Amino acid sequence: MISSSIGLGNQFLATIRQCDAIVHVVRCFEDENVIHVDGSVDPVRDADLINLELALADLAQVEKRMMKVKKERKGDTKEASALEKIIEVLENNQPARNADLDEEEEESIKGLGLLTRKKTIYAANVADSDLSTGNDLSSKLQEHAENEGATMVLVSAQVEAELVDLDPDDRADFLDSLDVTLDDTGLRRVIREAYDILNLQTYFTSGPTETRAWTVGKGWKAPQAAGVIHNDFERGFIKAETIGYDDYVECGSEAEAKKQGKLRVEGKDYVVQEGDCILFRFNV
Hints:
Elements: E1 2-3, H1 10-16, E2 21-27, H2 43-71, H3 78-91, H4 103-108, E3 119-125, H5 136-147, E4 151-155, H6 157-164, H7 168-177, H8 186-197, E5 200-206, E6 211-217, H9 222-229, H10 231-235, E7 237-243, H11 245-251, H12 254-259, E8 264-266, E9 277-282
Helix pairs in contact: 2-3
């Protein structure tokens, strides 16, 4: 996660190169008691400042790699083609994700971990009163995000901080006064958007003492999903006893779901669906 109020050091840049996506928190509220380092609030300016640092770091890395590719006389490779396209967009003040690469070109530069090619979510940090609808500042950030192929969600650090200290009943009343639900709080919006842009989903395992949620990619088959729990589950996969989430809630238990014919036995080719409740059978 990046905040527009900080500078970026080399160690920090190296860390976020390992991430799959970036959440960029940008101030979108006016408050005379919270001084902005630049003396005024301008979310587009603040976002551009950080993006410039990211782009310059990417450009330096890509140019360095291109020199090595040319030295090794690999100028007609997919990697060279990809690097040329990326240099062109970076020099035109666009993020590397705007470079149109084919599958082979994409794979050739994957190891570079380019910062401006990563999926990006702008988190517009607004006052609590603006969490439900946003404001003029967040609207400007929304347009900016769309222009560069990113997405934006509304968050309120103030609201998140207050929610931590409230009991469930007071929390509901507080959110109702803001015209938002718990599912519409900023943190949950960020999580949903992150899952969406990274093409992720959740399945569940449930037993007498514990229920767990597991994150997998959309389109993953049952053995792959089992491997998230343990490699042995994937290696020795036999079958997946599966109940849809809604069916599980309606029936109230695995036994009742089985009795009503809602439990399915799926094999190795089954594509796991969002919210599946699964018991894996395996043997190693």
